[in-house]
Amino acid sequence: MASIESGYAILGIEGHHDYWHNYVPSRYEVKTGTKGSVQYANALRKARGDRPLRATDFDAGLGDNHAEYESDYYTEDEDND
After folding, report:
1. Could you tell me the mean pLDDT of each successive run of 10 residues in the chain, 81 residues long?
2. Domain limits for position 72
3. Is pTM beyond 0.70 here?
């Protein structure tokens, strides 16, 4: 949980139940900008001076299933800033 709270990790692509039967939502089930979302992690990463996450870092092979989230990710154009 500390990794998610600090922006070093994000939630997975599918929700699941943990060992204690608690439901852990996917990154697509949490509100934009909240813990576990790409936007939350990228805001913290930016504040630290780290490179933001991009879709290819963690969503490779998903196709168009999550295309609406693409605009929130780092793009190659941002390399030139």
Report:
1. 91 94 94 93 94 70 48 50 48
2. 2-76
3. no
